[in-house]
Design goal:
Length: 283
Amino acid sequence: MTVWDIIVALILGFVEGLTEFAPVSSTGHMIIVDDMLLKSQEILGSPEVANTFKVVIQLGSILAVVIVFWKKLWSLVGIHIGGKDTNVTSGPRLKLSHVIVGLLPAAVLGLAFEDIIDQYLFRVETVLLALVAGAVLMIIADWKAKQNKESDGASLDEVTYKQAILIGLFQCIALWPGFSRSGATISGGVLMGLKHRAAADFTFIMAVPIMFGASAVSLISKWDVMTAEVIPFFVVGFVSAFVFAWISIRFFLVLIEKIKLLPFAIYRIVLAAILGVIYISMM
């Protein structure tokens, strides 16, 4: 690897980790940053390997979630760790079955349409459209929460199976790169009556199996492209994504309670407008 290769892997890991759990679309940002600026496919040898990289380094972000939510994740399987845990209550508890129910819709559709998504939706044009569409959904969610009063929303451990499946259906929209999985599920959770923080927590917990599954499927199906030459690039991206995802999660969980979704929606619209102008000028 050259110094430039390392810098590119670090930047893409930074973009993935910093944006994975903010409702702005990490995949969309990586497609934009990479396709318009860094061109990792020239380093890795093909667009196929570059797309696999963008999915696989999400494992670094998953590891960050596991570390932040480790007590809650253990409690899902009935193991309750002692000590203070702001994510675990003494009343009703979120169960593993709630998470599974929430995962089913996107898991089924993701497997069924993986090839179509890779072929047609991993493009700058579709990402820009998704940024705007996701922003509209977030604005609607914030408006609905304001109408219903945020303080009346359900907590994480009060999530019902009906809410879980409906949030899972919202998650399906995020199969469209650029829409944002966290943006879709947090908005869906708020629309289903959850508090913003509870919706964010549920989103992060659901992220562990679904992101791990997506990364594993992509890695296994593209295993033949994982040569000794590209593995160091993947490792650097993984470590970078882990570090910045851990920082992002801790910061975002505090931020979402204070500013809600509207500022992120505005950011998405402004970003789409700016990048749209740049993209058109480059054509």
